[in-house]
Amino acid sequence: MLRGEITTAIRRALMQELAAVGYGRLSIEAVARRAGVSKTAIYRRWNSKLDLVLEIVAAAAHGKLPALDTGTLRGDLTLLFQAVAHALRHPLASQIIPDLLAEAARNPSIDATLRQVLHARQQDIGGRLVNRAVQRGELPADTDPDAAIDLIVGPLYWRIAIARLPLTDSYLERLVESVVAGLGATGAVPHPRAAPMAG
Amino acid sequence: MLRGEITTAIRRALMQELAAVGYGRLSIEAVARRAGVSKTAIYRRWNSKLDLVLEIVAAAAHGKLPALDTGTLRGDLTLLFQAVAHALRHPLASQIIPDLLAEAARNPSIDATLRQVLHARQQDIGGRLVNRAVQRGELPADTDPDAAIDLIVGPLYWRIAIARLPLTDSYLERLVESVVAGLGATGAVPHPRAAPMAG
Question: What is the pLDDT of residue A22?
C-alpha cells in the first residue's frame, strides 16, 4: 500500500472498530488487524488511541454540508433536515458520537475536542442559515445562532438518535413549520403565518 | 447488611461504575467490590451484567416527574424544562444513557429496553402535558404527542447533553416561547401571540 492508502485504511478500520466495540474496548491491535497494517504503522502516525480517535472525529465533523442557500428559511431548513437525517443514520452518529460523549465526562481531551468540533459546526450552520434568514427579514435580527441551532437540530436528533422513532416526509414537513414558528417567536418579527392576519 | 440494603448498595455501585468506566468496561467484580458484597450476592439477584444494567435503567427512568398541571402550557413547559435540565445534569443522562445508546446498536436487548423505557416516558409526558393543553384549547386537537415531545425535549437535550453550552434563565424563557409557537404552528389553532392580531 502507498502511504496515503495506509492512512485511509487505518481511518476506515478505526471507524468500523469504534462502531463495533466502542472506545472503551477499542484496541490498536484490532484496528491494525482490520486495516491490514502493522501496529507500528499506526503508532508512526498517531501517538495514542486517543489521538487517533480525536483526529478522525474532527475530520468527519468537517465533512461537507449542503449549500443551504435556497432563498427561503423553509427551503434551507428542508435541505438541512434531509442532510441531518442522513448523517444521523451513519454509525458515526448512532454509535461513535454517543460513545465519545460518554467518554468525554471521563476524559478532558475528548471533552475539549468534542466541544470544539460541535461548536464550530454549530457556528458554521448558524452562519449560513440563520444569518441569511436574518438578512432576508425572516428571522429577528437578535436571533441567537446557538439557541437557533438547538431548536433546529435538537428535535431531529432526539427523534433519530434517542427516541429512535420513525421519520416520515410529513413529519419533516411539519417539523419545518414548527421550527420556523419557534424561531420567529422570540423576536420582533411576526410569525410568517400570523403576518397576513395583521393586515 | 439486610437483603434490601444489599440490593440498594449493588444498584448504587452499578451506577457509579457505569459512570466511571462505561458499559463496555464494566465488570461485576468491580461492582461487587464497590458495593462491599460478594459476586455471588449479585448473581443471586441478576443473571448477567446486562440484566442488572437494564433493570436499573428502567427503574431510574420511572422516577417521578413534576405534576405538570399549572393550568397553562407555558407554565407546564417551564416546570418540565426545569425538571429536564436537572435530570440531564445527573450522570445517568450525561454518561450512562449515551453509553447505553451506543451499546444499543450492538445489543438487541439493550436496544429494546431503551426504546420501551424512552417511549413509555414520552407517552407519559405526552399524556400529561400535551393532552391537557389540547383540552384547554392551547394546542391543536390533532397534535401528535411524540412529535410534540421531540420539539419539547430535543432542543434542551441537544443544548445540555450534546452541544453542552451554558443554560441561563433567559435562555429557558425564550425556549418556552419558541416551543409554544412551534407546537401551535402545525395545527388549526392560531399561535397564542398571533391571536390578538386577528381581532
Answer: 82
A99 with B99: Cβ contact below 8 A: yes
Residues from chain A that touch B171, judged by Cβ atoms under 8 A, are 147
DSSP B32-60: HHHHTS-HHHHHHH-SSHHHHHHHHHHHH
| Cα-based distances in Å from B150 to A19, A98, B146 | 26, 18, 6
Cell of A130: 440563520
Q: What is the pLDDT of residue B193?
A: 47
> B4 vs chain A: nearest CA distance in angstroms?
30
CB contact under 8 A, B185 and A171: no
Are A84 and B158 in contact by the 8 Å Cβ rule? The answer is no
CA distance B79 to B125: 12
Residue B10 has a pLDDT of 92
Which residue has better confidence, B191 or A69?
A69
Facing residue for B150 by CB, picked from A106, A159, A180? A159
3-class state of residue B160 by DSSP: helix
First to last CA, chain B: 69
Please report residues of B whose CB lies closer than 8 A to that of A19: 105
Q: What is the pLDDT of residue B78?
A: 94
Amino acid at the residue A38? S
**Interatomic CA distance for residues B130 and A142, integer angstroms:** 30
With CB atoms and an 8 Å threshold, state whether B102 touches A96. yes
Q: Sketch out chain A's domains with CATH numbers.
A: 3-49 (1.10.10.60), 62-192 (1.10.357.10)
Interface contacts A/B by beta carbons within 8 Å: 179
Q: Which of A119, A155, A181 comes nearest B163 by C-beta?
A: A119
Mean pLDDT of B41-45: 92
